[in-house]
Amino acid sequence: MQTSNLINWQPDRSKFPDQLADGSFKVDLSSGKYVKIWHGPNHPGVTGNMSLELTLCGDEVMDAKTHVGYLHRGFEKLFERRKFIQCFPTVIRMCVAEPDYNEYNYAAAIEELSGIKIPEAAKWLRMLALEMSRLQTLLRIVPGQGGTTGLGIGVQWGVYLRDLILDRFEELTGGRIYHMYMLPGGVRGLLPDGFRKRMEENLKEIDDFVQRIDRVQYQNAVFKKRTKGIAVIPPEWVDQYGITGPNARAAGFNRDVRKDYPYLNYDQLDFEVNTDNFSDIYNRSRLRWRDLQQTVDLIRQIMDKIPDKGDFKAKTPNVLHWKIEKGETYIRSESSRGEYGYYVVSDGSEYPRRINLRGPSYIHAVSLLERLLKGANIADIGAIMVSLQSCPPEIER
Amino acid sequence: MNTTIEETLTSLESRFELKDIKQQRGDLVFVTVKKEQLISLLTHMRDNENFTHFVMLSVVDWIEDGVFQLSYILNNPEKHVDIVFRCMIERENASMESAHHLWKQVATYQRELYEMYGIDFPGSPRVHESFILEGWDDIPPMRREFDTKKYSEDTYFPRPGRESKDPKEHMKNKLYPDADK
Amino acid sequence: MESQNNNNNNQEKFRDPNLDKRTVISPDGQQIEVDPLQDYFEQARPQVHKPASKVIEKFLNWARAESLWVLGFGTGCGSIEIPPLTTPRFDAYRFGVAMRPTPRQSSVFIISGYLSVKTLKRAIRSYEQMQNPKYVIGLGSCTINGGMYWDSYNTINRLDYYMPVDNYVAGCMPRPEAILAAFESLKKRIKEGRADGANKYAEHFDWYKANQKKVIKDWNMPDYNW
Q1: Cα–Cα distance between A275 and A294 in angstroms, integer?
Q2: Cα→Cα distances B57→A74, A330, B37, B106, C210, Å
Q3: Of the candidates C153, C154, C157, which has its C-beta nearest B157's C-beta?
Q4: Taking the CB of the first residue and of the last residue of chain C, which one, N or C, has fewer CB atoms within 10 A?
Q5: Once rounded to an integer, what is the mean pLDDT over residues A87-101?
């Protein structure tokens, strides 16, 4: 009798205000029923350095406002003072978690504006670096989803494996986090000796990890209970908010920049876009787990096709006074979070007129997060933020 | 040119005034439109031409001409084509009609542009709240007349010893000191 | 001259309305006037702590050096190297270094990279909330002289003008091994009794506050609805 009561327990909602059609609640702060708290920036449950201003009723969020700007460095202003080649080490610091997409987008924009064609080897090496970058992010974010619900073991495995990938990056480019590998015109070097063998060893370990994390995290009853059916993104929001990447794909949209606008040599690879039909936390995270497997597969395919010899850098003008013709372009690529774009405008001088970044988190962590948090439980905020994979530095630059 | 873009532009030309059509790539076209027609154009694109994905709103500061160039990048996710609508507005007392009712994320972009460039979007939600900066008391920092180096040197106690050299001059003096002779 | 005037007009025009004085009503109905430009923390000055005796202080310093509790506040991009530091590969726990979620429990503040003005305000508040003795490690070139962002209008150039720094780690970004070396060097300093940043902060409180005030114009505290 006692247990069945517990199972059929329904919360008493009479004290909570009703949710309006647009998701908001009518809140009267002077009634004393509500409390306003700040979540972050110094909070372990917030992804990166950002904060949320929450209005709570009990443990439910009535209203949420995102506050960003803690990481604002004014990059787009600094580019006014830097020449095109000086911008190159600066752009990659726009997003610390996944810097290679900045490198690629910037280099591709410069090449398009100045009409440079890059050699075949450079294309494959760029793809390798991009996929390795995606792999290291996913190794952090897939177990990180478990970490937000109190499952710490996956994080320990994931960060260790991510370190192995960072070692390969160090071998390939010389840097652990910031690589500065994809110079405008090509890349900085070919594969080192024995790289394929060591990479394959690491990938084998990751294959093993993929199976382990499936058993530990995705088959875990607590994890399922905490994440299924929470923070659902309905399909009609995808275009209303401009959602891209795994968050949109989990809602059933077959949109992947690598397939739709094939850049580099992605049209020569064999892969299917992962989609799902219901975008809640569990499915979004599960989709990233499938992306992780796909990325490992893609790296194997790419490594088979990379030429060992050959030209890896096209001839460019003297970079110290490289004038780029007047023009503008928009370059996009598929990062692990979604569509990553660069809008580059040149006015014909040695300095860029405008470089603007379109980061997926600009949408996911501001307008979408504010909407998703309305009516959410305060204990789920960390899980929601990680499932959207928000990355504050690309919001404020 | 991509047939989808061609068809779209032909159908647009009968209704709106398009200038400076420039094709950058097969799937990317830049078009300049008039300020008054922009919002109705965006609505038309979203509802009738299937350009449902709003990519970004950006601004370029052409201080020499005294104009801001607003760039609205729209994407057709079915046909995989982009059209960028450029719209020139005056720099003095810059103001633009808000598009926040068309896509939800536009309000965020407009908040940023008000703070960084001083472009007002009347009616956009929370547009006058500070978004990134806190306690900023100078002109909006992304405007080109704002000198970031001078501001930084005046405010943030630069550590002595940093020399900046013009790379062109420096390399020339270092590598080819006799080049001019 | 005219451009100067124009500038001032602009400053008036774009002035943030949040910086005006405002009245807040407390739950008791009391009216409190809040001035966002005033730093209310300043009213409680920190005190200099004199060591009791040399022997006890030596013992305490040994104890302090062997359990460094780090505030988990990732202020900049250097925070991406903190997870590798605390997981099995580099395992900072074996040196007695542990991460804490709140400033009240921690003794080391790692400023992981550039500080924007908005974060600097929070960092100073966190630093003032930490218990004595407290140590600061500046991570990355950007805390030393501004690094890549030396000419940016929103990031500070020298961290030691705003809070006393015990150790700097150079690099962009520093590797986990470098951070471990910084901990070792900090331990050495503490054991020698040279890491007295908290006392330095109390002694030169006015100088630090003046520097902070030059940068942070808005000391506004978040409005809580009690």
Answers
A1: 12
A2: 17, 12, 17, 7, 40
A3: C157
A4: N
A5: 86
CB nearest to A321's CB, from B131, B149, B168: B168
Q: Check which CATH number belongs to the domain holding A88 and give it.
A: 1.10.645.10
Spell out where chain C has E strands. Answer: 22-25, 31-34, 68-71, 97-100, 108-112, 135-139, 167-169
A49 touches chain B (CB under 8 A): no
Q: Which residues contact C12 (CB under 8 A, 6 or more apart)?
A: none
Residue A34 lies in a domain: no
Q: Is B48 inside any structural domain?
A: yes
On whether residue B29 sits in a domain, the answer given is: yes
Q: Is A23 left (phi over 0), alpha (psi -120 to 50) or beta?
A: left
Identify the closest residue of chain C to A144 by CA–CA distance: C83
In a domain, residue B149? The reply is no
The structural domain count of chain A equals: 1
Q: Which residue of C has its CA nearest to A57?
A: C225
Q: Which helix (H) or strand (E) holds B64?
A: none
What pairs with residue B71 in β-bridges? B58, B86
**Residue A5 included in any domain:** no
Give the neighbor-by-neighbor strand order of the sheet with A327-334.
A327-334, A339-346, A352-358
CATH code for the domain defined by C54-215 = 3.40.50.12280
Q: Judge whether residue A33 has pLDDT over 50.
A: yes
3-state DSSP assignment of residue B88: strand
Residue B77 within any structural domain of the chain: yes
Phi-psi region of B100 (alpha: psi -120 to 50; beta: other; left: phi over 0): alpha
Lowest mean pLDDT among A365-369, C29-33, C154-158, C161-165: C29-33
A10 in a structural domain = no
Residue A292 belongs to a domain: yes
Q: Which domain holds residue B69?
A: 3-134
Do residues A177 and A103 make contact, with C-beta atoms less than 8 angstroms apart?
no
What is the distance in angstroms between the Cα of A270 and the nearest Cα belonging to chain C? 32
Q: Which residue in C81, C88, C149 is closest to A73 by CB distance?
A: C149
Q: Which burial class, exposed, middle or buried, applies to C37 when counting CB atoms under 10 A from its CB (0-12, 13-18, 19+)?
A: middle
Question: Which range marks the domain in which residue A209 is found?
Answer: 84-392
Q: What is the ipTM of this complex?
A: 0.86
> With an 8 Å Cβ cutoff, is B149 touching chain C?
yes
Does the pLDDT value for residue A82 go beyond 60?
yes
For the stretch B101-142, pLDDT in tens is 888 889 999 988 888 888 888 888 888 888 888 878 788 888
Please give the Cα distance from B19 to B33 (Å, whole number): 6
Give the C-alpha separation, A106 to A92, whole Å. Answer: 9
